[in-house]
Amino acid sequence: MEAWRFFKKTVSMVFIGTKGYYLWCAFLLTVIGIAITFYIQQLDAGLIVTQMRDQVSWGLYIGNFTYLVGVAAAAVLLVIPAYIYHFDPIKEIVVLGELLAASAIIMALMFVLADLGRPDRFWHIIPFIGSLSFPNSLLAWDVIVLNGYLVLNTIVPIYILVKIYFGAEPSKKFVIPLVLLSIPWAVGIHTVTAFLYNGLAARPFWNASILAPRFLASAFCSGPAMAIIIFQILRKTAGMKIRNEALFKISELIAYSMFINLFLLGAELFKEYYTGTIHLAPMEYLYQGLHGHHSLVPWIWSALFMNVTAFVIFLIPKTRENLLTLNIGSFFIIVGVWIEKGLGLIVPGFIPDPLGEIYEYMPNINEIAISLGIWAFGLLIFTLFMRIAIPIQRGDFIHSRYAKPTARPQYERIEP
Amino acid sequence: MMSMGALAGLSLGSLSCTRAGMEEFLQKHFREMSEDEKKAVIRRLEAKYLKKYGKKVRISTQQAEAGVLWGYGLDLSRCIGCRRCVYACVNENNQSRVNPQLQWIRVIRLKKGSLINLENAEHYYNPETVPEPGFMYMPVQCQQCENPPCVRVCPVKATWKEPDGIVVVDYNWCIGCRYCMAACPYKGRVFNWAEPNLPAAELNTEVHYLGNRPRMKNVVEKCTFCIQRVRQGRYPACVEICPTGTRKFGNLLDPNSEIRYLIENKRVFRLKEDFNTDPKFYYFFSA
């Protein structure tokens, strides 16, 4: 009975909101709608509507996929201190962090799907039904770990939220093992994604053992930076109670991660430039241009500038604990890491190609529209998650027996 | 991802709801089909090609012969860079002619004095006449590795090495993820970025299921040493067309074959040997 009420109310709540909520959802739906028309064209004509070609056979889609796997993995950064060290202000937002991870994984998987030439043959990749090449193909590994991570990051927050709804304390016996599992799993999804590129001897730019550590370091910058922005928006729009203290703690962790990220980048730059073998070419293409081709050069230098600036902002307590500079730093990291790990990672892997040809790739309107559509879809999912999760956490959406304000249960309440 | 894939599959406009369309959608992996299932698939494909090109296409599924491992020799002293092999290959193997233009052989021009660093290789050289003084030419195609990185990375086993050493693709099983293209150190694979443009008049009707049968959009394809020819005792089209005798072909397991003679008597090398891909494509200099 109560479960039915929960379900009914959940569905109806999604359709009820403020004017801003309606506008936001309408905007996202419009972007998704436009993207669908572009995707139908891509299905119809083939991937020729993109700028990808035999020389650069992956582009914007796979770049976004890589970035979003990182964002999803970074949920662990919010989980570790909350559960292991019982750092209270962060504990409040773990559920939302995990839902952010789930949304990011959904987006990442949609980017793979958008990149797939034959989505109609998707079933070939399903274990037991198709012929998933496990353990040989790292892509098969990725299919498994990403879907597992998605399940994990959906089960835990939903369980906690339902428990709160019913006015019960979530069972530690159930939650803690799953959370402990999700920590190595988060490291796992990003490591596997790095190995996807890392394992290709044909692509010296990716075939560096520093790739997986760099992936993790940069993910632990971009994911939490995104969380900082999103939590502030929710605080303003949804009345979610998040203390500044929690945001500052996250930004401090970002500073450490960004230091490691920049250090690893430096180590890579040193090795490539000092030895100066023919494997330097992709790096040269990225940072200086190669044989007159330099379309990525302004991008990567902007990324470097943004990452270094953000590092300084997050390192100094005064700027890190000022909401204006904190937001500038977060924005810089979101964009900086996106460039570094999106086009800045994928495209130089293909330039020059194994026979020395240079084909310069820049995404076209089709790819950009479809990518924006996937981002909009992910944001929509996250918005709907929040539409339900926040009232539950605030205690506004609760079991009918507690619905009267006087009868609320005494469990750990979230206060500003 | 799975449910989304199913949705995308259902909503795919190009997939007709006809019986043939459904059969195509549900078609099994080539290596998991029984002989009867193979026959049914061949019948369906032949009917499809007849409808599309107005020609009767004969699709062979001829298997590898025991005791055969194909090897290729290429004499860099003789190659004049005329690219006749490229076009003979396109005609023989039914590649898409334009938009996209697909070629399985790529001839690169190298300045004399440099062989290993391909960064200065010229792909689109276009002089009045070849050969040109000061340059050498190196045709590159799938090297049919014994240890092929492309096969290892394929997430759905849509590509594999046949018993006679030829690396093939089941075009009806490939999901178009292009991971194999990223893994190949030789640029041995090309992608049908759009529906192939193959004029019916130029269609080669003698085809092999794993080789030169007409392909569809958004799948990967590659050189198969002309599997449809070599399994019938003929030379690959590129070997046959070459005006200078640059190209050699034979059974590596036959001690009396020409390829064995070359390996034993010429100073052969293989491209990017340091990758341990163990190619069955031997370059050499006769002079």
Report on the structure:
The complex is a heterodimer of chains A (416) and B (287). Chain A is mainly α and 416 residues long. Chain A contains 16 helices and no strands. In chain A, helix 6 (94-115) packs antiparallel against helix 16 (365-394). The two termini of chain A are 33 Å apart. Chain B has 287 residues and is α+β, with helices and mostly antiparallel strands. Chain B is built from 9 helices and 12 strands. Chain B has helices at 2-11, 19-26, 35-53, 84-93, 149-153, 179-183, 227-230, 237-241, 258-265; strands at residues 58-60, 70-75, 106-111, 135-140, 159-161, 167-169, 189-191, 206-208, 220-222, 247-251, 268-269, 281-284. In chain B, the strands form 5 sheets. Chain B has a 4-stranded mixed beta sheet with strand order 10-2-12-11. A two-stranded parallel sheet of chain B has the order 1-8. The longest helix of chain B is centred in the first third of the chain and has 19 residues, at 35-53. Chain B is globular and about 60 Å long. The termini of chain B are far apart. The interface between A and B is large, with 58 and 58 residues.
Q: Which short descriptors sum up this protein?
A:
heterodimer, A: 416 residues, mainly alpha, Formate dehydrogenase/DMSO reductase fold, 70% helix, 0% strand, B: 287 residues, alpha+beta, Alpha-Beta Plaits, four-stranded mixed sheet, two-stranded parallel sheet, 9 helices, 26% helix, 16% strand
What's the gist of this structure?
The complex is a heterodimer of chains A (416) and B (287). Chain A has 416 residues and is an all-alpha fold. Chain A has helices spanning 2-14, 19-45, 60-73, 75-84, 88-91, 94-115, 138-165, 172-198, 211-237, 244-275, 281-287, 297-315, 317-320, 323-341, 343-349, 365-394.
